[in-house]
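Re: beginner question about structure tokens

> Can someone show what the tokenized structure looks like for a real chain? I only ever see the sequence side.

Sure, here's an example I had lying around. Input first:
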Amino acid sequence: MKHKTISSKTQQVIGLGMMMAMSMMTTGCATIEGPKPGDNANFAPVTPVVPASQQQFNGAIYQRGAGMSLFTDNKARQVGDVLTVVLTERTNASKSANTSTEKDSELNLLDPTVFGAPVTLNGQPILNTSISSSNSFDGAGSSSQSNQLSGYISVTVAEVMANGNLRVQGEKWIQLNQGREYVRLRGVVRLKDVEPNNMVDSTKVANAEIFYGGTGAVNDANTQGWLGRFFNSKVWPF
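And the corresponding structure tokens:
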């Protein structure tokens, strides 16, 4: 009985292929799962900070250690307070470029003479020559993109900064038939930008991170498979 042996180079190629397949399967499975409510601490609700020492209340209207103001609006000011963000995101971008170049060159070298006579071979001049070249280039490109997002999302104050700005974060999930829609937001809000009704426009949120997406059957049907994404990725050499 004859036994076939596999060269070390072939074994390396097979091993590399198996590693790539396992990596693609792992990445594909992780992508299929998708986000879930509460799976990201950056958008989780924040509870108010409990004071280190509790004051004893005696039933009076004004208590020592309890903040109260008769002339301020009911706005989010402390960690754990709720703030409503009005989503009014709209972006439009377009770019186009056109390039056209052309160059013509021509060189004529007359038959030189040596000692008063032209240089010939069998009676034909051999140094009389002319050179000409022509090249041109035309290029054009264009790109356009537009996005729009509107709605409301309520977030909680995660941190009150030294200058009084509020770092807010939160998420919103909606169950719709065959899937879920979600909005996630985090950023920094100036207290002066918060309106008396405790709302702020999303265009006034600094360092804003806004995510909108979905999960379920409709989202899966509209998503390219992991193997197709691999062949369309930058790592594919062909």
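Each token stands for a local structural state, so reading them left to right follows the chain. The mean pLDDT is 78.
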